[in-house]
Amino acid sequence: MTKKNIAGLLCCFISCLASAQKIDTQQLDRYFNALEENNKFMGSVAVSQDGKIIYAKAIGFSDLENNTKANTATKYRIGSISKTFTSVLVLKAFEDKKLDLDTTIETFFPSIKNANKITIRQLLRHRSGIYNFTDDEEFKIWKTQAKTEKEMVAIIAKGGSDFEPDTQAAYSNSNYVLLTYILEKTYKKPYSELLKTYIAKPAGLKNTYFGGKINTKNNEAVSYTFADGWKLESETDSSIPLGSGGIVSTPSDLVHFSDALFTGKLLKKETLELMKTIKDTYGMGLLQLPFYEDIAYGHRGGIDKFTSVFSYSSDKKLSFALTSNGSNYNGNEIPVVVLSAVYGKPFDIPEFKTFQNNPEDLEKYVGTYASSQLPFKLTVSKEGKMLVAQASGQAPLQLEGIEKDKFAFEKAGIILEFNPAEKAMVLKQGGGEFAFVKE
């Protein structure tokens, strides 16, 4: 349920080719094996073309505590990709004349500010102005506790409004939680049943359903953060994200869902076009993912330490899906590599450098650093055997030593090069270099 914009996530390696080449699966397997061997990524990937899966791979553990390896049938929480499913359900209700997209929501949620102005269409497009409840400072405290509809609506209502409806767009998980309740009230059936009836069955999805408490015995993955080894992450109760982020699936099912959606098996052509129409970044449960000359549509997701992305290129009839339950790497690079392999473009197997620092040697890097080039200070501290960097107002980043006086946070492509004698440090990211001085 992260809000980061991924418009640039998938690079176009396909625009110059009419159809996919034969995949160098051995090279691609070596790439994923390198990630696995160096504790960089745990997860699963699938690619389909013309409705047929042409590559699938899973690495890492679905359940480290029980030494259970992931496989291509392992199921992951897909976070906000759930919004695409929920949008399909709402638009299906619209097609069946059970819902009018321009109906305002005051009869459903009279306590929501501006409910008499907010329409279902605006909820779908993130144009309601309703406060995003996952931005609440206390969200991380109560996210593991089950919530009723009454409790969730009260939480959302308490957040108020960030802007007048339909004056702008801002991503809000609250919109799709409310859409879940609207669907359940309209059909008088639980969301899980609607998902099964109107999407899973017609699309032939065998491993996609609304999640409950994670059941590792059912080949469901738990998620991990990396901090000097993989550490188990707490689990958001599924009664909170609902149709905003509560679905469980596999990459193989996600590409089948993508194929079914974009080839007209779930919605009418004109309804799909409505769903794909972008206004201020957002469609209806879809984002536009530009390839150089092509346009793909899809969504990404993040809940706890699960991350996911799917996309569909209609010109190439290509679907791609990636799910993860733990990442210690720049996740943007993985889709690029997979698509490179699919379309015969060269890619490198990364070499991961490591440099073991004695814990006592880390003290010379500790301190607060300021830069004339950037508007924030960077505090560097030691936590056990690890060096941690934290920018003002941001989350701490655990650094890995890669060379003498050089540390990296690979998930964001950040490198810090220290010069202890000069009490200086250089931050490198995305081709930029920024000089810092220790205060």
From TrEMBL:
<keyword id="KW-0732">Signal</keyword>
<dbReference type="InterPro" id="IPR012338">
    <property type="entry name" value="Beta-lactam/transpept-like"/>
</dbReference>
<dbReference type="InterPro" id="IPR001466">
    <property type="entry name" value="Beta-lactam-related"/>
</dbReference>
<feature type="signal peptide">
    <location>
        <begin position="1"/>
        <end position="20"/>
    </location>
</feature>
<protein>
    <submittedName>
        <fullName>CubicO group peptidase (Beta-lactamase class C family)</fullName>
    </submittedName>
</protein>
<feature type="domain" description="Beta-lactamase-related">
    <location>
        <begin position="43"/>
        <end position="330"/>
    </location>
</feature>
<dbReference type="InterPro" id="IPR050491">
    <property type="entry name" value="AmpC-like"/>
</dbReference>
<dbReference type="Pfam" id="PF00144">
    <property type="entry name" value="Beta-lactamase"/>
</dbReference>
